[in-house]
From TrEMBL:
PROSITE patterns: HTH_GNTR
A molecular function GO annotation: DNA-binding transcription factor activity
CDD domains linked: WHTH_GntR (cd07377)
Record keywords: DNA-binding, Transcription, Transcription regulation
Ranges annotated as spanning the membrane: none
InterPro entries assigned to the protein according to its UniProt record, in alphabetical order: GntR_C, TF_FadR/GntR_C, Tscrpt_reg_HTH_GntR, WH-like_DNA-bd_sf, WH_DNA-bd_sf
Record-given protein name: Putative GntR family transcriptional regulator
Record-annotated HTH gntR-type domain positions: 7-75
């Protein structure tokens, strides 16, 4: 029985480069970092990196300009899904709906990240968690929270996870927006949130896909429960 050959190192590197571009927010026309920086970021040799770039260039995703470098030609999600229109108001019940979308998407993303993450992927996730620990305001905590989840999506090696999470956006990461938790629970809220993210990080760091999925599921379900309580407290 004939089976498909596993993707080459260059093909896997091309997927990771796509993920890195999406996670970094680079848009069409943006210049990529120098070759040596990308080699360090992706932990590959110059030969493998050049083969990966050549593949993306052949697919029209990157373009080279003599003497200037390599640029993003187009984003793979151009014309893709739109969770909401720009400026559209999002009510609390819509946020709960988006949390259900996150549950379906991010539980599997955490498991894939645990199996596929590179050392540089893990370093980025750890850096975002450290940023959450150092956050001094609710908005800063939410921003770092969102970046933490984008970093996990990037660690899957599948750029589609990043595209969908970015489309959902940080509106699916509940913050005050008039629906705040009671002030007395503020410190407890931050403590629980950090503990949940620490468990997700642990699963990914240890390469334990089952633990990572369970930790992500618990976190998103707990977020939904806290947000429902906030809605009731503000109604």
């Amino acid at each position: 029985m004939k089976t498909d050959a596993p993707p080459s190192l260059a093909a896997r590197t091309a997927d990771r480069l796509r993920s890195w571009i999406a996670a970094s927010g680079l848009v069409s026309g943006a210049r990529l970092p120098p070759e040596h920086a990308l080699m360090a970021q992706l932990d590959v040799s110059r030969t493998v990196l050049r083969e990966a770039v050549a593949g993306l260039r052949a697919q029209g995703e990157l373009t080279s300009r003599r003497g200037s470098g390599v640029f993003v030609a187009r984003m793979a999600d151009d014309g893709g899904i739109r969770v909401r229109e720009e400026g559209e108001a999002v009510n609390p019940h819509a946020i709960l709906n988006l949390l259900e979308v996150r549950l379906a998407l991010e539980v599997e993303a955490a498991g894939l990240a645990a199996r596929r993450r590179s050392a540089s992927d893990l370093a980025r996730i750890e850096a975002e968690f450290a940023g959450m620990e150092a956050a001094r305001t609710r908005d800063e905590l939410v921003a770092r929270d969102f970046s933490f989840h984008v970093a996990i999506a990037a660690a899957t090696g599948n750029p589609q996870f990043i595209y969908v999470i970015r489309q959902v956006g940080d509106r699916a990461f509940p913050r005050e927006r008039g629906w705040s938790t009671p002030p007395a629970n503020g410190e407890r809220y931050a403590e629980l949130r950090l503990r949940e993210h620490q468990s997700i990080l642990r699963g990914i760091a240890e390469g334990d896909a089952v633990f990572a999925r369970d930790a992500m599921r618990h976190h998103i379900l707990a977020s939904a429960q806290r947000f429902r309580a906030a809605i009731e407290a503000n109604s």
